[in-house]
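## Example pair
The file below holds two records. Each record gives the amino-acid sequence first, followed by its structure token line.
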Amino acid sequence: MADGIAALRAAVEAQGLVPGAAKAKRGKPGVTLVWLRPEPVTLRVDAKDVLWLETYLPWVMAGGKLHKQVKALLAEQGALCASREGHVSVGMPGGAVALPALLTAAQGLRDMLQAEWPDYATGVFAKALV
């Protein structure tokens, strides 16, 4: 597991970002990361070697209009979408080396939210720091 966390930390640093605290969950390595929103998210590799930004989009109703649009956009980029308890995690197959592609997918989501869901983008996804 330490090797998995080291690989994640190295991948984050290679992107010019600063990895946060190491987090293990049910034997899966993870590190926190601040990316495009003020709250940190956990970056984790699962048993199928999928790299996830866990609970990246908060409060998205499964099956709703926004959820469907998110899933379609991610599918176009070869990314995955998982919903749990009203939160969407964004994944990319390939483990830690998939981080650049995952960050590109996350950027695409943010751009779509700002253009098409501005209330969600500024009120829920990335609340203004006041």
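Second record, same layout:
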Amino acid sequence: MYFGSVRFFKNLILLTVIILITVPTVLAVRWGIQLHRQQHECERLSMEMEQQRLSYQEELDQMAALETAAEVALNEMIQKQAEEQAKALTPEKIAYQQMYPDFYAPQELGAVTNEENVIYLTFDDGPSNRTPEILDILREKNVKATFFVVGQSDEERLQWMKQIVDEGHTIGMHTYTHQYKKIYASVEAYLEDMYAIFTQIRETTGVTPTVFRFAGGSINNHNHGVYREIIAEMLRRGFVPHDWNVASADASSTPISSAQLLYNVVSGAQRVKRGVVLMHDSEYKYTTVEALPSMIDQLQEMGFKLDSLHENTQPILFSYPE
């Protein structure tokens, strides 16, 4: 019978071989077509993403160029305006120019540097119990920063003020009392308060401060009537003001997480070619301290050099209304 014949088994084996060859071949072809389609789709998506990235980078470059040009123009305008106002305000006309004859920076205002790819970490309102922790991190990371300090009466905090200077950081003035209504009542009131912190820094650290930061920034809700005169007088005395263009937002009365602080600074740094970061060195800013190590690491990975402010650093200043 055919069923049990040699011919039957030969045909069965042949059929089996054909099936074993055909099925994998069909599957391979099908999978190959699907893989080719997927590769084509991936290439298309990759091209779209690259086009979007280039477009986004072009927008960032344009924004950075506009920001740099605006910043330079703004600072030139402010410098010129301040110099003109300082010339017009002669000692005969303005009594406050006679106040505190030793309240001057050790150098005259000169040429400034406008280095790119630099981030300046700054801490306001210290020294505080957080200061040693901040200094430990900066020392471990081999990074210098700037501390805009306020008046102190506690001996331990005065020692921390000295430690800031001893470890190579820049110390600047941020008013003695930090009481907005008091210090912005007049130019005379501002000079009185700033002279107090100037004297304390000089006597405590042996260093004469040359940079300062307005409490609340150079333009705020409390100094609209006097900020032009104040900045002109401080410039006349050789002191350089510094605002900021990257905010950590740790001044918020609502507690903010270290992750959010880190995001605020890193995302802000992505929009600038040189940045001054505002942070606070005060009692309850635990999350600022927690975020600082990762912040330093990520900023350096982005290609930024971290440095401290000096009297010859091109200042970041807020836009002055006409």
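Notes on the second record: The beta strands are 118-126, 146-149, 170-173, 211-212, 240-241, 246-247, 274-280, 305-307. DSSP finds eight helices and eight strands in the chain.
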